Amino acid sequence: MRYMVKSPFRGHLLHISDRDALLIEATMAQQLQFYWPPFTRNIKITLVGLFTLWFASVMIAPLGAFVDDYMLISKRAVIDQGQVWTLITYAFWHADFTHLLFNGFVLWMFGAELDQRWSATRWWRFTLLCALGGGLTILASQLIFSTNFPTLGFSAAVMGVVAAFAWRHWNDRLNLLFLPVTGKTMLLVFIGLDILFVVTGREAISIAGHLGGMATGLLIASDYWRPSRIKRAFIRRRQRRNLKLLRSKDPDKTSSDRSHFN
């Protein structure tokens, strides 16, 4: 069976088959439907683990005091007291349930697709490296601005996952809160929100963790941390530039264009 549909170009009628009609309907429905990702295995483990640690630190007073003294990252903890492990351990604890809920929701929305495609080893290595990148950025920001705020939360790892998701869909069309954006635009939106929080008075050290996690996630996902990848990208860019120069200086192309009009 074939259908007649009106083309948006000059009002022409187009003949399409059953299969093409179903494909068009499915595409339109997918664009209008909000996508809820599945709860994958490593997402579940991460969320349950983070919730358990938060709940235990709230309910068990000695554990909460231990976390405050030995698990949170700050310039004093790392530089003065030598607690280098806090560059990672700060990520496993949260200040309150709202903080945990936001991180968990964003991790689920953007991390489920990556978890489905990655191995468990790659998932845990990636999130831990993003947390470490955020911790190093937090420490650097405190050294630069001479601050000493203890910081905690899984936000750096979460923002690294967001950056990896954005890189995977860099030029693809996505629906961000029903707004059509590309992956790179979505990443800029998250960065803009972080800057807005700084301007409106939100704690700037956590923003350093966000940006550090994003940068780490983007470097790992894009593979640009490898010197060989950077070298190949530089060579391709130089080749495109040389080709553009050759085309602009090609006399044969110019003469052929002129002879056509003679």
From TrEMBL:
Which Pfam families does its entry note? Rhomboid
Ranges annotated as spanning the membrane: 45-67, 87-111, 123-145, 151-170, 177-199, 205-225
Task: List keywords of the entry alphabetically.
Answer: Hydrolase, Membrane, Protease, Transmembrane, Transmembrane helix
Q: What do the Gene Ontology cellular component annotations say? A: membrane
- Show where the Peptidase S54 rhomboid domain sits: 81-221
The topology of this chain with respect to the membrane is: Multi-pass membrane protein
SUPFAM superfamilies, per the entry: Rhomboid-like (SSF144091)
Question: Does the record carry Kinase as a key word?
Answer: no
Q: Any idea which GO molecular function terms this record carries?
A: serine-type endopeptidase activity
Q: Which GO terms describe its biological process?
A: proteolysis
The protein's location, in the record's own words, is: Membrane
Presence of keyword Membrane:
yes
Q: State the family named in the UniProt similarity comment for this chain.
A: Belongs to the peptidase S54 family.
Its recorded name reads Rhomboid family intramembrane serine protease
